[in-house]
Amino acid sequence: MAASGASATEALAAAIDAFTAAGIETPRLDAEILLAELAGLDRAALIADRELILQPAAARAYSEAVRRRLRREPVAYILGRKGFRHIDLAVDRRVLVPRPETEMLVELAREVNPETVLEVGTGSGAIALAVADELAACQVTATDVSDGALEVAIANAGRLGLGERVRFILGSLPEGPAGFDLILANLPYVPDSDGLPPEVGQWEPAGALFGGPDGTRVIAEVLAGLGEAGIGAPVIGLEIGQGQGELVAGMVRDAGWPETEIRLDLAGIDRVVVGRGG
Ligand SMILES: C[S@@+](CC[C@H](N)C(=O)[O-])C[C@H]1O[C@@H](n2cnc3c(N)ncnc32)[C@H](O)[C@@H]1O
Fold it and tell me: Is domain 93-276 annotated with CATH 3.40.50.150?
Protein backbone atom coordinates (compact mmCIF):
# COMPACT_ATOMS: atom_id res chain seq x y z
CA MET A 1 0.00 0.00 0.00
CA ALA A 2 1.42 3.44 0.92
CA ALA A 3 5.10 2.83 0.23
CA SER A 4 7.87 5.32 1.02
CA GLY A 5 7.38 8.55 -0.94
CA ALA A 6 3.96 7.39 -2.17
CA SER A 7 1.53 9.97 -3.42
CA ALA A 8 -1.27 10.55 -0.94
CA THR A 9 -3.85 10.21 -3.72
CA GLU A 10 -2.53 6.77 -4.66
CA ALA A 11 -2.30 5.63 -1.04
CA LEU A 12 -5.86 6.78 -0.48
CA ALA A 13 -7.18 5.04 -3.60
CA ALA A 14 -5.46 1.79 -2.63
CA ALA A 15 -6.90 1.95 0.89
CA ILE A 16 -10.42 2.70 -0.40
CA ASP A 17 -10.21 -0.29 -2.77
CA ALA A 18 -9.01 -2.58 0.02
CA PHE A 19 -11.67 -1.35 2.48
CA THR A 20 -14.39 -1.76 -0.14
CA ALA A 21 -13.26 -5.31 -0.94
CA ALA A 22 -13.27 -6.11 2.80
CA GLY A 23 -16.91 -4.98 3.10
CA ILE A 24 -16.19 -1.96 5.32
CA GLU A 25 -19.28 0.26 5.39
CA THR A 26 -17.68 3.68 4.89
CA PRO A 27 -14.47 2.97 2.94
CA ARG A 28 -13.72 6.47 1.65
CA LEU A 29 -14.50 8.24 4.91
CA ASP A 30 -12.38 5.83 6.96
CA ALA A 31 -9.46 5.99 4.51
CA GLU A 32 -9.54 9.80 4.52
CA ILE A 33 -9.86 10.17 8.29
CA LEU A 34 -6.91 7.85 8.91
CA LEU A 35 -4.69 9.47 6.28
CA ALA A 36 -5.54 13.03 7.34
CA GLU A 37 -4.66 12.20 10.95
CA LEU A 38 -1.41 10.45 10.11
CA ALA A 39 -0.32 13.10 7.59
CA GLY A 40 -1.17 15.83 10.12
CA LEU A 41 -3.74 17.52 7.85
CA ASP A 42 -7.44 18.11 8.02
CA ARG A 43 -9.60 16.09 5.63
CA ALA A 44 -10.46 19.05 3.38
CA ALA A 45 -6.77 19.88 2.87
CA LEU A 46 -5.98 16.26 2.16
CA ILE A 47 -8.70 15.98 -0.49
CA ALA A 48 -7.77 19.33 -2.08
CA ASP A 49 -4.04 18.58 -2.41
CA ARG A 50 -3.80 15.96 -5.12
CA GLU A 51 -0.01 16.39 -5.46
CA LEU A 52 0.74 15.62 -1.80
CA ILE A 53 3.63 13.21 -1.27
CA LEU A 54 3.62 11.34 2.01
CA GLN A 55 6.74 11.47 4.16
CA PRO A 56 8.13 7.95 4.64
CA ALA A 57 7.13 7.87 8.32
CA ALA A 58 3.55 8.95 7.50
CA ALA A 59 3.37 6.40 4.66
CA ARG A 60 4.50 3.63 7.02
CA ALA A 61 2.06 4.71 9.72
CA TYR A 62 -0.75 4.77 7.17
CA SER A 63 0.08 1.26 5.96
CA GLU A 64 -0.12 0.04 9.55
CA ALA A 65 -3.42 1.88 10.17
CA VAL A 66 -4.92 0.41 6.98
CA ARG A 67 -3.78 -3.05 8.03
CA ARG A 68 -5.50 -2.61 11.40
CA ARG A 69 -8.68 -1.30 9.81
CA LEU A 70 -8.78 -4.30 7.47
CA ARG A 71 -8.95 -6.46 10.60
CA ARG A 72 -12.12 -4.43 11.32
CA GLU A 73 -10.64 -2.53 14.25
CA PRO A 74 -12.75 0.63 14.77
CA VAL A 75 -11.20 3.87 13.49
CA ALA A 76 -11.48 5.37 16.99
CA TYR A 77 -9.29 2.63 18.52
CA ILE A 78 -6.72 3.02 15.73
CA LEU A 79 -6.53 6.77 16.33
CA GLY A 80 -6.89 6.29 20.10
CA ARG A 81 -9.48 9.02 20.41
CA LYS A 82 -13.07 10.00 19.68
CA GLY A 83 -14.81 13.37 19.68
CA PHE A 84 -18.00 13.63 21.75
CA ARG A 85 -19.91 16.92 22.10
CA HIS A 86 -17.11 19.52 22.62
CA ILE A 87 -14.49 17.19 24.11
CA ASP A 88 -11.98 14.70 22.76
CA LEU A 89 -11.79 11.40 24.66
CA ALA A 90 -8.95 8.90 24.66
CA VAL A 91 -10.42 5.47 23.89
CA ASP A 92 -9.11 1.93 23.67
CA ARG A 93 -10.49 -1.59 23.85
CA ARG A 94 -11.39 -1.22 27.53
CA VAL A 95 -14.25 1.15 26.66
CA LEU A 96 -17.15 1.45 24.27
CA VAL A 97 -16.54 4.01 21.51
CA PRO A 98 -18.92 6.88 22.42
CA ARG A 99 -21.79 7.13 19.91
CA PRO A 100 -23.39 10.32 18.57
CA GLU A 101 -26.88 9.25 19.75
CA THR A 102 -25.59 9.17 23.35
CA GLU A 103 -25.29 12.95 23.11
CA MET A 104 -29.08 12.96 23.70
CA LEU A 105 -28.39 12.25 27.39
CA VAL A 106 -26.11 15.30 27.56
CA GLU A 107 -28.88 17.34 25.93
CA LEU A 108 -31.26 16.10 28.64
CA ALA A 109 -28.78 17.29 31.27
CA ARG A 110 -28.72 20.72 29.64
CA GLU A 111 -32.55 20.85 29.81
CA VAL A 112 -32.63 19.85 33.48
CA ASN A 113 -29.63 22.06 34.40
CA PRO A 114 -28.78 19.98 37.49
CA GLU A 115 -26.31 20.81 40.23
CA THR A 116 -25.62 17.12 40.84
CA VAL A 117 -25.65 14.19 38.41
CA LEU A 118 -25.11 10.47 38.86
CA GLU A 119 -23.96 8.64 35.74
CA VAL A 120 -24.06 4.83 35.97
CA GLY A 121 -21.75 2.95 33.56
CA THR A 122 -19.45 5.75 32.47
CA GLY A 123 -17.08 3.83 30.15
CA SER A 124 -14.68 6.40 28.67
CA GLY A 125 -16.37 9.06 30.82
CA ALA A 126 -18.10 10.53 27.76
CA ILE A 127 -21.41 11.53 29.36
CA ALA A 128 -20.04 12.53 32.78
CA LEU A 129 -17.23 14.61 31.29
CA ALA A 130 -19.39 16.28 28.63
CA VAL A 131 -21.92 17.23 31.33
CA ALA A 132 -19.15 18.65 33.54
CA ASP A 133 -17.69 20.46 30.53
CA GLU A 134 -21.02 22.05 29.54
CA LEU A 135 -22.56 22.72 32.96
CA ALA A 136 -19.89 24.62 34.83
CA ALA A 137 -21.60 24.46 38.25
CA CYS A 138 -22.44 20.75 38.10
CA GLN A 139 -20.85 18.05 40.29
CA VAL A 140 -20.91 14.61 38.67
CA THR A 141 -20.56 11.17 40.24
CA ALA A 142 -19.72 8.47 37.68
CA THR A 143 -19.54 4.70 38.24
CA ASP A 144 -18.43 1.66 36.28
CA VAL A 145 -18.05 -2.00 37.20
CA SER A 146 -15.04 -2.29 34.86
CA ASP A 147 -11.75 -1.18 36.43
CA GLY A 148 -10.19 -0.86 32.95
CA ALA A 149 -12.97 1.48 31.85
CA LEU A 150 -12.63 3.53 35.02
CA GLU A 151 -8.87 3.95 34.41
CA VAL A 152 -9.65 5.34 30.94
CA ALA A 153 -12.33 7.68 32.32
CA ILE A 154 -10.11 8.98 35.15
CA ALA A 155 -7.27 9.66 32.69
CA ASN A 156 -9.70 11.50 30.40
CA ALA A 157 -10.95 13.61 33.31
CA GLY A 158 -7.39 14.57 34.24
CA ARG A 159 -6.38 15.41 30.68
CA LEU A 160 -9.51 17.56 30.21
CA GLY A 161 -8.98 19.35 33.53
CA LEU A 162 -12.38 18.14 34.83
CA GLY A 163 -11.13 15.87 37.63
CA GLU A 164 -12.22 18.29 40.35
CA ARG A 165 -15.89 18.10 39.38
CA VAL A 166 -16.23 14.42 38.51
CA ARG A 167 -15.95 11.76 41.22
CA PHE A 168 -15.40 8.23 39.92
CA ILE A 169 -16.50 5.10 41.77
CA LEU A 170 -15.58 1.51 40.91
CA GLY A 171 -18.81 -0.49 41.20
CA SER A 172 -22.36 -0.19 40.01
CA LEU A 173 -23.71 2.49 42.36
CA PRO A 174 -22.49 4.86 45.06
CA GLU A 175 -23.44 4.16 48.64
CA GLY A 176 -26.96 5.17 49.53
CA PRO A 177 -29.12 6.71 50.61
CA ALA A 178 -28.25 9.61 48.35
CA GLY A 179 -30.04 12.20 46.26
CA PHE A 180 -29.06 13.67 42.91
CA ASP A 181 -30.82 16.17 40.63
CA LEU A 182 -30.47 13.83 37.64
CA ILE A 183 -29.50 10.19 37.02
CA LEU A 184 -28.16 9.24 33.58
CA ALA A 185 -27.15 5.83 32.23
CA ASN A 186 -26.20 4.27 28.93
CA LEU A 187 -25.99 0.67 30.15
CA PRO A 188 -25.45 -2.45 28.02
CA TYR A 189 -28.71 -3.04 26.13
CA VAL A 190 -27.95 -5.32 23.17
CA PRO A 191 -29.90 -8.61 23.34
CA ASP A 192 -27.42 -11.51 23.78
CA SER A 193 -28.40 -13.18 20.52
CA ASP A 194 -28.08 -10.06 18.33
CA GLY A 195 -25.55 -10.25 15.50
CA LEU A 196 -23.24 -7.24 15.52
CA PRO A 197 -20.89 -5.78 12.91
CA PRO A 198 -17.30 -7.05 13.40
CA GLU A 199 -16.15 -3.59 14.55
CA VAL A 200 -18.51 -3.91 17.51
CA GLY A 201 -18.77 -7.64 18.25
CA GLN A 202 -15.06 -8.46 17.81
CA TRP A 203 -13.51 -5.30 19.27
CA GLU A 204 -15.69 -3.53 21.82
CA PRO A 205 -15.97 -4.92 25.39
CA ALA A 206 -18.76 -7.49 25.74
CA GLY A 207 -19.50 -6.11 29.22
CA ALA A 208 -20.42 -2.78 27.64
CA LEU A 209 -22.73 -4.31 25.05
CA PHE A 210 -24.87 -7.24 26.10
CA GLY A 211 -27.88 -7.03 28.39
CA GLY A 212 -29.37 -10.53 28.56
CA PRO A 213 -32.03 -12.20 26.40
CA ASP A 214 -34.03 -9.03 25.63
CA GLY A 215 -31.25 -6.54 26.37
CA THR A 216 -32.83 -5.02 29.48
CA ARG A 217 -31.28 -7.16 32.25
CA VAL A 218 -28.63 -4.63 33.36
CA ILE A 219 -31.11 -1.76 33.19
CA ALA A 220 -33.47 -3.74 35.44
CA GLU A 221 -30.64 -4.57 37.88
CA VAL A 222 -29.56 -0.94 38.13
CA LEU A 223 -33.13 0.34 38.59
CA ALA A 224 -33.63 -2.24 41.37
CA GLY A 225 -30.27 -1.31 42.91
CA LEU A 226 -31.18 2.38 43.01
CA GLY A 227 -34.38 1.55 44.90
CA GLU A 228 -32.65 -0.81 47.33
CA ALA A 229 -29.90 1.70 48.09
CA GLY A 230 -32.30 4.63 48.42
CA ILE A 231 -30.65 6.59 45.61
CA GLY A 232 -33.06 8.95 43.90
CA ALA A 233 -33.46 11.92 41.61
CA PRO A 234 -36.43 13.88 40.25
CA VAL A 235 -35.36 12.98 36.69
CA ILE A 236 -33.73 9.89 35.17
CA GLY A 237 -32.59 9.39 31.57
CA LEU A 238 -31.73 5.95 30.18
CA GLU A 239 -30.35 5.17 26.73
CA ILE A 240 -32.08 2.17 25.15
CA GLY A 241 -32.08 0.13 21.95
CA GLN A 242 -34.53 -0.35 19.12
CA GLY A 243 -37.96 -1.55 20.26
CA GLN A 244 -37.20 -1.28 24.00
CA GLY A 245 -39.07 2.01 24.60
CA GLU A 246 -42.36 0.76 26.04
CA LEU A 247 -40.75 -2.02 28.08
CA VAL A 248 -38.12 0.24 29.68
CA ALA A 249 -40.64 3.08 30.21
CA GLY A 250 -42.76 0.59 32.22
CA MET A 251 -39.69 -0.45 34.23
CA VAL A 252 -38.90 3.20 34.97
CA ARG A 253 -42.48 3.86 36.14
CA ASP A 254 -42.37 0.75 38.37
CA ALA A 255 -39.04 1.96 39.79
CA GLY A 256 -40.61 5.21 41.00
CA TRP A 257 -40.69 7.74 38.15
CA PRO A 258 -44.42 7.94 37.27
CA GLU A 259 -44.15 10.21 34.20
CA THR A 260 -42.22 8.73 31.30
CA GLU A 261 -41.36 9.90 27.82
CA ILE A 262 -39.69 7.98 24.98
CA ARG A 263 -37.38 10.05 22.79
CA LEU A 264 -36.41 8.96 19.28
CA ASP A 265 -32.99 9.48 17.69
CA LEU A 266 -32.39 10.99 14.25
CA ALA A 267 -33.04 7.58 12.66
CA GLY A 268 -36.49 7.46 14.32
CA ILE A 269 -35.43 4.70 16.74
CA ASP A 270 -36.44 4.59 20.46
CA ARG A 271 -33.27 5.93 22.06
CA VAL A 272 -33.88 7.52 25.45
CA VAL A 273 -36.45 6.95 28.17
CA VAL A 274 -36.89 9.95 30.46
CA GLY A 275 -38.60 9.42 33.80
CA ARG A 276 -39.85 12.29 35.95
CA GLY A 277 -41.52 12.74 39.31
CA GLY A 278 -39.11 10.49 41.22
C1 LIG B 1 -22.79 0.92 26.75
S2 LIG B 1 -21.35 1.26 27.72
C3 LIG B 1 -21.53 3.03 27.88
C4 LIG B 1 -20.26 3.75 28.16
C5 LIG B 1 -20.41 5.28 28.17
N6 LIG B 1 -21.33 5.72 29.20
C7 LIG B 1 -20.89 5.78 26.82
O8 LIG B 1 -22.07 6.15 26.72
O9 LIG B 1 -20.09 5.79 25.86
C10 LIG B 1 -21.88 0.62 29.26
C11 LIG B 1 -20.88 0.73 30.43
O12 LIG B 1 -21.55 0.27 31.60
C13 LIG B 1 -20.68 -0.54 32.35
N14 LIG B 1 -21.54 -1.44 33.15
C15 LIG B 1 -22.04 -2.65 32.81
N16 LIG B 1 -22.83 -3.12 33.79
C17 LIG B 1 -22.84 -2.17 34.77
C18 LIG B 1 -23.47 -2.07 36.04
N19 LIG B 1 -24.25 -3.04 36.52
N20 LIG B 1 -23.26 -0.96 36.78
C21 LIG B 1 -22.44 0.03 36.33
N22 LIG B 1 -21.80 -0.02 35.13
C23 LIG B 1 -22.01 -1.11 34.37
C24 LIG B 1 -19.79 -1.20 31.34
O25 LIG B 1 -18.57 -1.61 31.93
C26 LIG B 1 -19.63 -0.10 30.28
O27 LIG B 1 -18.49 0.68 30.54
Answer: yes
